[in-house]
Design a protein that fits this description.
The chain is an all-beta fold and 426 residues long. The chain has helices at 182-189, 201-204, and strands at residues 4-9, 41-43, 48-50, 75-82, 90-92, 98-102, 107-110, 117-119, 121-122, 136-142, 152-153, 160-166, 174-177, 218-220, 222-223, 226-234, 246-256, 258-265, 278-280, 285-289, 291-292, 295-296, 299-300, 307-308, 316-317, 322-323, 326-334, 339-353, 356-357, 363-364, 367-380, 392-400. A hairpin with a 4-residue loop joins strand 25 (316-317) and strand 26.
Length: 426
C-alpha cells in the first residue's frame, strides 16, 4: 500500500540548506566427508512501500518488490558463531583441534549481481569448511561506510554484539541471521534427535529434491532504516516553465544520526530480526541531505558513490494540462521517527530590479538573477499517532509554487471637507 504525503509550499523564505590469516597451504588437502563446505546464500529483503560530506556511501540497496530489488555486488560482513552464543567458530588444525583463528569473523563477502538471492563469495576468495562437530549460527550486516568502530560485545549485559555507526542519509543499514526455510526445516525435522544440528557439517549433507544443496545458511538482509523518496509537482504551468520556473536545488531532513546497530545476540535476549536493531542515541541528530546516483553515458549507476544533487525542475504536461510527477534524487535513509522536519531549497530566475530612467534621462534595463529560498515543513504519517517504520519506503510528494512578486498599490486618501469656521477679529 502506498502512502503519499502532499505538501503545498508557498515560496517566500530564506536561503539554501544543502549544497550540498592465512588459510593457504602448499599442498592440496583432499576434502574429507566430514569437512562439508560452507555455502552462504544471501537473500534480498522485499522493501515495503507506503507511499559533511566526505561520505563514499552508495545509497539504497535493493528496492520494493520487483525487478529493481536486486543485489549489485555490495559487500556484506558475515560472522559464524557457536550456536546460541557470541563466540566465534574456530578453524581446526591438522589434528582436528580448534585453533584461535575464527572461520568467519565478520568476513567481507561479495553479494551477487542482478539477482535478489544467490551465493556470496569471500572477498579474499578463500573457501571455508565446517568443523567435524558443532552447530553454528550465521550473522550478517551491511553498513556501507557508516561504521565508526569495530563490532564489540555490549558491556552492559554482554548478551548482544553491536556496531557503532553514524549515518548521513545515504547509507543503508541491514542485518541478517540465517534461518531455516520451510523445506529445510521439514528436512531437519525428519532427522529425529539430530533435528537441531544446524548449521553444521551434518546439516550440509542433508539433501533431498527440495533441498538439493544441503541445509546451508540462507540469510535475508533486513533494512533497519526508514526510506523517504521525494517527488515534485508544479502547481501551474508557469512554475514548470523551463526558463523562468522553479527548480529544487536541495532537500534536507532532520533525523537522529548516531547509534549502535545490533548485529548478533545470544539466547538470553528477546531480540529477533523483526526488532528495531538500529538503536539511536536520542541527543544526536543532524540535517541529512539528499543526493543522487551518478549517471555514466546515460546509465544510472548502482553501488557507486552518490553525488551532489543537481537542480531538478517540475514538468508540465500540455496534453493533460497538469503537472507530471518528477522524482528528485536517490532517497534519504533516516532513523524511524514519529515525524520529520524537512527543508526544501528552491530557486527561480526572477526580476530583481525593474527598468527605470534617471532624472538625467539615462535609461536602465530590468535586471534578473537567481533567487534561492528555503521552505521548511513537517511531515508525519496519515495517522499522526503512527511513527515511520523501519524497512518501509514512503513517497513524499511536494507541490511547488513560483515566487510571487510583491506589488504595493498606493491609494491616496482624499481630504474630507469640514464645516467653515468664521473668525471675526474686530
Amino acid at each position: 500500500m502506498k502512502h503519499g504525503f502532499l505538501f503545498l509550499f508557498s515560496a517566500a523564505v530564506l536561503l539554501t540548506a544543502c549544497s550540498t590469516s592465512d588459510d593457504s597451504t602448499t599442498t592440496p588437502i583432499p576434502e574429507s566427508q566430514d569437512r562439508a563446505q560452507i555455502n552462504l546464500n544471501l537473500s534480498m529483503p522485499k522493501v515495503v512501500t507506503k507511499s559533511v560530506s566526505s561520505s563514499r556511501a552508495v545509497g539504497t540497496v535493493g528496492d520494493i518488490e520487483g525487478t529493481n530489488n536486486v543485489w549489485a555486488g555490495e559487500v556484506v560482513h558475515i560472522a559464524m558463531m557457536d550456536k546460541g552464543k557470541l563466540t566465534y567458530a574456530k578453524e581446526l588444525d591438522a589434528n582436528g583441534n580448534a585453533t584461535t583463528e575464527p572461520i568467519y569473523e565478520w568476513a567481507s563477502m561479495n553479494t551477487p549481481e542482478a539477482v535478489d538471492s544467490g551465493l556470496a563469495t569471500r572477498s579474499d576468495h578463500y573457501v571455508k569448511y565446517y568443523p567435524v562437530l558443532g552447530n553454528y549460527d550465521f550473522w550478517g550486516y551491511y553498513a556501507d561506510d557508516a561504521a565508526t568502530g569495530a563490532p564489540a560485545i555490549d558491556n552492559t549485559y554482554g548478551n548482544y554484539m553491536v556496531l557503532p555507526f553514524q549515518i548521513d542519509g545515504s547509507q543503508d543499514l541491514m542485518t541478517a541471521k540465517a534461518e531455516l526455510t520451510p523445506a529445510q526445516k521439514a528436512l531437519m525435522d525428519d532427522q529425529g534427535s539430530n533435528s537441531n544440528r544446524y548449521y553444521s557439517a551434518f546439516s550440509a549433507r542433508r539433501k533431498n529434491d527440495l533441498v538439493p544443496d544441503g541445509v546451508q545458511p540462507i540469510m535475508t538482509f533486513n533494512h533497519q532504516l526508514t526510506r523517504l523518496k521525494f517527488h515534485i509537482k508544479a502547481a501551474d504551468s508557469l512554475t514548470a516553465d523551463p526558463v523562468n520556473g522553479v527548480q529544487v536545488t536541495g532537500i534536507a531532513v532532520r533525523s537522529k544520526n548516531k547509534g549502535n546497530l545490533i548485529i548478533a545476540y545470544n539466547d538470553y535476549t528477546d531480540y529477533t530480526q523483526s526488532s528495531n536493531l538500529a538503536l539511536f542515541t536520542t541527543k544526536d541528530s543532524d540535517s541529512l541531505c539528499l543526493k543522487q546516483r551518478p549517471v555514466v553515458d546515460g546509465k544510472v549507476m548502482r553501488n557507486q558513490q552518490l553525488v551532489d544533487l543537481t537542480p531538478v525542475s517540475p514538468k508540465w504536461n500540455s496534453t493533460t494540462n497538469q503537472s507530471d510527477t518528477v522524482n528528485v534524487g536517490e532517497a534519504l535513509l533516516v532513523a524511524p521517527q514519529e515525524s520529520y522536519n524537512i527543508f526544501v531549497a528552491i530557486k527561480q530566475y526572477v526580476m530583481t530590479r525593474g527598468a527605470y530612467t534617471d532624472a538625467d534621462g539615462t535609461a536602465h534595463a530590468a535586471e534578473y538573477d537567481w533567487k534561492t529560498v528555503i521552505v521548511p515543513a513537517t511531515i508525519h504519517r496519515s495517522d499522526p499517532s503512527q511513527k515511520f517504520v523501519k524497512g518501509v519506503s514512503y513517497n513524499v510528494y511536494i507541490t511547488l509554487h513560483g515566487l510571487e512578486k510583491i506589488d504595493v498599490v498606493t491609494k491616496l486618501g482624499a481630504w474630507i471637507e469640514g464645516e467653515d469656521i468664521d473668525l471675526d477679529l474686530e
